[in-house]
Amino acid sequence: MKMKENKNINRRGFLKFLGAGAALAAAGCSSGDKSGSSESNPAGGSSKAGTGGMTYRVNPSTGDTVSILGYGCMRLPTIPAAEGNGDEIDQEMVNKQVDYALEHGVNYFDTSPAYCQGRSEHAMGIALSRHPRNKYFIATKLSNFAEQTWSREKSLAMYRNSLKELQTDHIDYMLLHGIGMGGMDAYNGRYVDNGILDFLASEREAGRIRNLGFSYHGDVEVFDYLLSLHDEYKWDFVQIQLNYVDWHHAKEVNPRNTDADYLYGELKKRNIPAVIMEPLLGGRLASVNNHIAGAMKQRRPDDSIASWAFRFAGTPDGVLTVLSGMTYMEHLQDNLRTYSPLEPLNDDELAFLEQTAQEILSYPTVACNDCKYCMPCPYGLDIPGILLHYNKCVNEGNVPSGKNDPNYAQARKAFLVGYDRSVPKLRQADRCIACGECKPHCPQGIDIPAQMARIDGFVEQLKQGTLS
To answer: Residue 241 in contact with residue 235, Cβ under 8 Å?
Structure first.
């Protein structure tokens, strides 16, 4: 792809490559309409985001009319468990947010047997089954990551359990989950040697699966190989990580990642719709450095910081829907403002976000996206909580470089007090014994034990006043 050869490509050429806005469906389309297309909403229109109805895209494979905002169900709201041990999903709040999302035009809900420590499908089954089945699309995955679940019997049991938990007789969007993690050996073991891929294709033929695709993490060899099978399997969609940092700089975040412009471009060439995950890079693009946030607010004072990332992810016309894990109602409401309707980025804004991406990468944050695949830790650590607190302090300027830092005293207090408030003492980094059980589960390839040791050492230096 020519874009990868020249990151300073002409901005109008960049917009042409994205096809920005060319397939935006008009607001007011029924969220339950699964056939046909609707009128286009031209890119660069003057209507202000949040004042109209939801923007929709049409899946060329099935004619599904899908909301550009997809409801990600990886991080559902929780409350303390009744028995006082840990937490449980707040079903009442899930129901309330699902109702609100449907009422405001969201019709794509993405879950997995692996999400919320195995509780997401059950909660979404309860919430969604209260509504007519033709008013929403369910996406779920065959999440047979652990080698002990690779057998045909256990993989089939996982698939059938998804139907049961989701209280449905068909899956609208079914994914092979996390293709690329573990390379070709893992792909063959999970889906080929046991005949599961052919089984899922037969389920699509029977109508119990309406769209078949895969989500990609990691080894690009597997991504390219599966696309080479498109003539045979006719992928209806593919889920990729896309945001304004990963567009050109994915390998700077994680060396095993692939730039999103390549992934999107390969799908675009084959007319395969893209479903977007991690538009906020695990929340990092909603909580940027204060200097960057100021520049964004100067340009669009009424818009949230997160809205910049969501507009970027929704601008390419080959994007079917953009997933957002909306734990809180205010997240849902903000995203609805951004996508009702979507105002695609113009060439000047795209150039600004490329500059912003380069600046973000100059700050030493950790590439945690809070997916919680590393959890539960056998020794009780709150791994995501530790890493997210560290990232928050980096962005707020509360990671002092040494005692000569003019902000040392204030930053030291903010880091230590915030650490104790956000992560219970018995779940902090000093509890890590470097067993390494978490490492293979991290899609971002973070060396978690090394990060725990580094952050624990930093905390001790702050406590002892020995940071030089």
So the answer is: no
**Whether 408 contacts 425, CB under 8 Å:** no
Token duo for residue 2: 């020519």
DSSP string for 4-36: HH-TT--HHHHHHHHTTTTTPBPTT--TT--SS
Helix (H) / strand (E) containing 174:
strand 171-179
Per-residue model confidence (pLDDT) at position 212: 98
* CA separation for the pair 152, 442 (Å, rounded): 25
Per-block mean pLDDT, blocks of 10 residues, the chain (468 long): 41 54 39 34 37 91 96 94 84 98 98 95 98 98 93 97 98 96 93 97 98 93 96 97 95 86 97 96 86 95 97 97 95 96 97 94 79 87 91 80 78 90 92 91 84 89 83
Torsion angle of C-alpha atoms 229, 274, 345, 352, degrees rounded to 10? -70
CB contact set of 355 (below 8 Å; sequence gap of 6+): none
Residue 227, strand partner residues: none
Q: Are 25 and 56 in contact (CB under 8 A)?
A: yes
- Cα distances (Å, whole numbers) of residue 283 to 147, 334, 354, 384, 449: 30, 14, 18, 12, 22
List the structure tokens of 306: 């997160």
Instruction: For residues 173 and 67, give the distance between their C-alpha atoms in angstroms, rounded to a whole number.
Output: 14
CA distances from 3 to 6, 196, 259, 260 (A): 6, 36, 11, 11
Contact 342, 311 (CB under 8 A): yes
